[in-house]
């Protein structure tokens, strides 16, 4: 038995302890004291450590494993975009396009003269949704700002009042890595694409949500949504620096339920800020810290904004998302711009995380990382630069990334929710078979993590595990890419130990060993005993613990 001294406060027994520790994958019991794991081993051995104040938790056949680590989440965007009473029209909550506009009309009527934000349309999953043109949005809300954001967060559609409030005119320059769409005469159409352009509209409609009390309540809700699905640590992969104090306060409040690590939005301004003068910069604590910088090297297939070596189809679906008979999408930055930003942030000591889907973009990002680490490649390797999502990445590219020390995090919900769209509408069956090629990444030697990407899909690590096991799109039952499946052990490591390593927290979380933090997720049954095709129906989170303290129970 592995053990530390002193009587534990908690002992978990009566079910399998799944440690994710390769030296001891399974145990019968686990002890906790002062927020740390103090013993892992046989039931009789661990129970022999109990004292008069020890509380024994009988799992009753349930399983306990490390709390899930959301490698690429968006708790801050969840708070701003979908925390109640937000207008959440994502296809996972409002699949019918007509119902989307009914929700918008209700929201406008309920707040006359006030800005209205609507989050989550999807032009590919909500096929009956009329396009949110400037004319239509002006008709819906003529007198106040109205902005409709896509579920991916890579585009937003504004009415005239919102354009005016954001001071977007024909003379407004496009921000770095983003753009305001313009008509043939150069006038803004109301559509914004990518990072800073979308963000310009977000601040127009944030309204009361930015008041300290409202923001605190929204963050509490977002953090609790993570605890509800067994997540104990989340990376916030798009932190606006002005939100750092609020994010830190929410993570460190008494009774807090989530450990947070932020990746800041990597702007040219921050690249030039070598003295770190931005608000909220402070050393990391147990529950909050800054982990690195985030760039969006390209966009999303759902808006046609990724750079691929293979073409998009030319059909009604691709024209609907704005491809206009164009077979290939763009990158957000030139290769030179990517290299300049990556080099600046690496020199400042910030690990990088780059959003990348297209295979052409992936090579450009690897080239940028190589240039950033040219003077000291081992230092770059130690920083564990990340590649996020990785939709169209090939096995050869994964091998190149592994060789230089880059690491990858994959978004399996692309198969879960959009697998049929990839096969039928955007690229064809062959591309869908290898989209999110997680097996290729694993076999290339990566410590792969799986994520849900915050608001872009429902936050649920077990759904990512289920999709990695089956490659099934539940709406149709179709399977895309059997050769790219993971085993149950690999998939569970990809939501526990591996993302902890990517966040440089492998000595604290992600495994169940004495001395590590008692971050735990309790599952309804032993996931190793459930067939892959039954995983989603039979395996559920029943309790979550952060540092040995319960944060959610079913």
Estimated structural class: alpha/beta
| Shape field | globular
The proportion of strand residues reads 15-25%
Compute the separation of the termini in Å: 31 Å
Order of strands, main sheet, comes to 7-14-15-16-17-18-19-20
Q: How many helices?
A: 21
Helix content: 25-40%
Q: Regions with pLDDT < 50 over 5+ consecutive residues?
A: none
Largest sheet: 8 strands, parallel
Question: Taking Cα atoms only, what radius of gyration do you get, to the nearest Å?
Answer: 23 Å
DSSP strand tally: 25
Give the overall pLDDT as a whole number.
95
Defining traits:
alpha/beta; 554 residues; 8-stranded parallel beta sheet; 6-stranded mixed beta sheet; 21 helices; 23% strand
Describe the structure.
The protein is an alpha/beta fold and 554 residues long. Helices cover 33% and strands 23% of the residues. It is built from 21 helices and 25 strands. The chain has an 8-stranded parallel β-sheet. Helix 5 crosses helix 6 (195-206), helix 11 crosses helix 12 (359-372) and helix 12 packs parallel to helix 14. The longest helix has 17 residues, at 212-228. It is globular. The protein starts with a strand and ends with a strand. The mean pLDDT is 95.
């Amino acid at each position: 038995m592995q053990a530390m001294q002193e009587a534990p406060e908690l002992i978990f027994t009566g079910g399998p302890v799944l440690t994710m520790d390769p030296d001891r994958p399974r145990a019968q019991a686990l002890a906790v004291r002062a927020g740390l794991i103090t013993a892992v081993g046989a039931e009789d051995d661990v129970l022999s450590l109990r004292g008069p104040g020890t509380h024994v938790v009988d799992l009753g056949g349930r399983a306990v494993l490390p709390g899930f680590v959301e490698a690429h989440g968006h708790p801050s965007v969840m708070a701003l975009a979908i925390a109640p009473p937000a207008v959440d029209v994502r296809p996972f909550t409002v699949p019918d396009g007509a119902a989307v506009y009914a929700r918008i009309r209700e929201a406008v009527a309920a707040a006359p003269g006030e800005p209205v934000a609507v989050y989550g349309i999807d032009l590919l999953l909500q096929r009956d949704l009329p396009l949110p043109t400037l004319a239509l949005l002006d008709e819906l809300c003529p007198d106040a700002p109205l902005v409709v954001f896509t579920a991916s967060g890579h585009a937003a559609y504004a009415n005239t009042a919102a354009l005016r409030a954001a001071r977007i005119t024909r003379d407004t320059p496009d921000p770095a890595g983003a753009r305001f769409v313009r008509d043939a005469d150069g006038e803004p159409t109301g559509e914004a694409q990518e990072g800073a352009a979308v963000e310009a509209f977000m601040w127009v409609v944030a309204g009361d949500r930015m008041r300290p009390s409202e923001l605190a309540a929204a963050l509490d809700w977002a953090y609790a949504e993570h605890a509800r699905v067994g997540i104990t640590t989340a990376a916030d992969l798009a932190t606006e620096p002005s939100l750092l104090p609020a994010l830190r306060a929410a993570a460190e409040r008494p009774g807090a339920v989530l450990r947070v690590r932020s990746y800041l939005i990597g702007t040219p301004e921050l690249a030039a800020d070598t003295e770190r003068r931005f608000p909220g910069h402070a050393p990391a604590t147990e529950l909050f810290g800054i982990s690195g910088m985030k760039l969006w090297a390209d966009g999303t297939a759902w808006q046609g904004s990724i750079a691929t070596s293979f073409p998009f189809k030319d059909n009604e679906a691709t024209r609907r998302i704005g491809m206009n008979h164009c077979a290939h999408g763009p990158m957000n930055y030139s290769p030179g711009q990517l290299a300049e930003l990556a080099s600046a942030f690496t020199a400042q000591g910030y690990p990088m995380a780059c959003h990348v889907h297209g295979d052409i973009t992936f090579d450009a990002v690897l080239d940028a990382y190589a240039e950033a680490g040219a003077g000291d490649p081992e230092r770059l390797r130690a920083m564990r630069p990340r590649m996020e999502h990785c939709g169209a990445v090939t096995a050869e590219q994964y091998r190149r990334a592994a060789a230089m020390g880059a690491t990858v995090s994959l978004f399996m919900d692309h198969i879960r929710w959009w697998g049929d769209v990839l096969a039928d509408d955007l690229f064809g069956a062959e591309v869908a078979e290898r989209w999110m090629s997680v097996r290729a990444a694993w076999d290339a030697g990566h410590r792969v993590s799986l994520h849900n990407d915050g608001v872009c899909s429902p936050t649920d690590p077990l759904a990512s595990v289920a999709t990695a096991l089956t490659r099934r799109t539940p709406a149709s039952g179709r399977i895309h890419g059997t050769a790219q499946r993971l085993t149950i052990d690999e998939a569970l490591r990809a939501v526990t130990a591996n993302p902890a390593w990517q966040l440089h927290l492998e000595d604290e979380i992600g495994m169940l060993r004495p001395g590590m933090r008692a971050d735990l997720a309790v599952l309804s049954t032993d996931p190793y005993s459930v067939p892959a095709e039954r995983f989603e129906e039979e395996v559920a989170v029943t309790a979550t613990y952060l540092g040995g303290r319960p944060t959610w129970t079913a």
